[in-house]
Protein: DUF1615 domain-containing protein
Organism: Azotobacter vinelandii
Amino acid sequence: MPKPQQPRNRKNMNPKCPIQPATAGTAMPEPRRRAAGALGLALLLALAGCVTQRPEEPRPAEVRARIVRLMPAGIADREGWATDIYAAFAAQDISPSAGNLCAVLAVTEQESTFQVDPAVPGLARIARKEIDRRAAQSHIPEFLLRAALGLDSSNGKTYSERLGAVRTEKELSAIFEDFIGMVPLGRQLFGSLNPVHTGGPMQVSIAFAESRARDYPYPPEGSIRHEVFSRRGGLYFGIAHLLGYPANYERPLYRFADFNAGWYASRNAAFQNAVSRASGIPLELDGDLIRHGSFAPGATELAVRSLGRKLDMGNSAIRHALERGDRLDFEDTELYERVFALAERIERQPLPRAVLPGIKLQSPKITRDLTTAWFAKRVDERHRRCMARATGGKGK
């Protein structure tokens, strides 16, 4: 059976407004013509309403109910989680689409299984090892360190006792804050830098949260660091880090990798791959295009410089373009376009614009050989399952 013919301007039609203009060129009597003119004016007004009509945004209660439905089974206080997730989306003007909601739920499940302050296995041992390492670096005698840890802390227990019972990063962060502020040796070991760098249900960077503190919609309880360890704060800053920047990725997989490795790391790893193909110089695909905080060129910049004559670009222009590697408009630079054009001409095939960064995850908490690619793929699997729930098991 032949397919029914589609109207030519289907893409400009609004299915909610099935009103169509009369076909031109058909003769009709004068009275009918006047009536048709009046009807035509009414139809034009109706069509104008259709053109300016915008789809209604879902009500907050509808979005929260959808989040509850999309969450994995067995999560406690589902409504509370949904409330804080919706508030973060609304405050940052992020679309609560199924894909975006599932992305947040997938990362949260992977990082904490929906625990506000998840327990870390062996954290007491990890914390003491870090203190011992810092003491050795600072040439602090062991007996002096033992004496400092044996002092009473602000809650009456010794620092050693508190460290021996620590289970979560929030508890550990509080111990270090106390240790740094109360014990002179604490400042010598850690200065003003608390060695706990991430926290909360999405394990977001505390430094990132502090850089976005001005837009935080809640009155902080204590400090932004403390807010990261709360559900509302951990979700707000985690969602900002995951979805708060524009990217041209065709798959959410690469945004998940960026969540772990830094904004645009997947895009930049693809650029490094193109540079390596064009120059013949092996590069570590880590997404870092320059040495931040230094004017000395790193491996990627040196490899690009080797292509300077073929790219018709000098070292200064190359450096200026690479410094835009943490922005979307790096893709609009002549360097980006010329490197890919050169590499694809050499390879005689298109090259990917996103590549999973080849970064080994390093942290005192990590006891296995894990990578950014491993993390991104695990989150992507969870995202697919969530999207299946969103579509009733039909599609992705």
User: Anything to note?
Assistant: Residues 255 and 331 are 16 Å apart (CA to CA).
